[in-house]
């Protein structure tokens, strides 16, 4: 909804209207949208099968009911991707941090898939792959 309102205001050339709205209202509106977007991404970050539609508090209640179902592999990949993106942005600012984070995601996903395959075959998922 926030995006639709922003887009409509931009097309109507009403961007100057924001000058008449209190700064704290604009900040609160934007922060509320950010919290809602973050809450809707919880199921993807933790690898959960849950309903993420509805109001903010409903999403948090639903998330709380599914805490036991958190997928450790999906969470590990998500956390490592986030940390790689933050680290590259901080310590290697000339590199595109989102591309580095995407590379970290693919690496983590490949390792998680390999561990799942080994577990299915009856092997130890923590063993390192053989050198080729």
Major pleated sheet? none
Class by SSE composition: mainly alpha
Q: Could you estimate the helical fraction of the residues in percent?
A: 55-70%
- What series of H and E elements makes up the topology? HHHHHH
Summarize the structure.
The protein is mostly helical and 132 residues long. The protein is 65% helix and 0% strand.
Describe the 3D structure.
By secondary structure, the chain is mostly helical. It contains 6 helices and no strands. It is extended, with a radius of gyration of 20 Å. The chain starts with a helix and ends in a 12-residue tail after the last helix.
Defining key terms:
132 residues, mainly alpha, 65% helix
Task: Give the helices and strands, then pairings.
Blueprint: H1 2-11, H2 23-40, H3 42-45, H4 56-65, H5 72-91, H6 97-120
């Amino acid at each position: 909804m926030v995006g639709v309102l922003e887009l409509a205001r931009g097309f109507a050339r009403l961007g100057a209207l924001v000058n008449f709205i209190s700064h704290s209202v604009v900040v609160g509106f934007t922060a509320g949208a950010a919290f809602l977007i973050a809450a809707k991404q919880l199921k993807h970050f933790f690898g959960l099968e849950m309903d993420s539609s509805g109001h903010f508090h409903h999403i948090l209640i639903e998330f709380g009911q599914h805490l036991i179902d958190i997928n450790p592999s999906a969470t590990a990949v998500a956390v490592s991707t986030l940390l790689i993106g933050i680290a590259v942005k901080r310590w290697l600012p000339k590199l595109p941090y989102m591309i580095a984070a995407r590379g970290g995601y693919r690496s983590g996903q490949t390792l998680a898939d390999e561990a799942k395959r080994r577990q299915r075959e009856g092997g130890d998922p923590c063993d390192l792959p053989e050198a080729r």
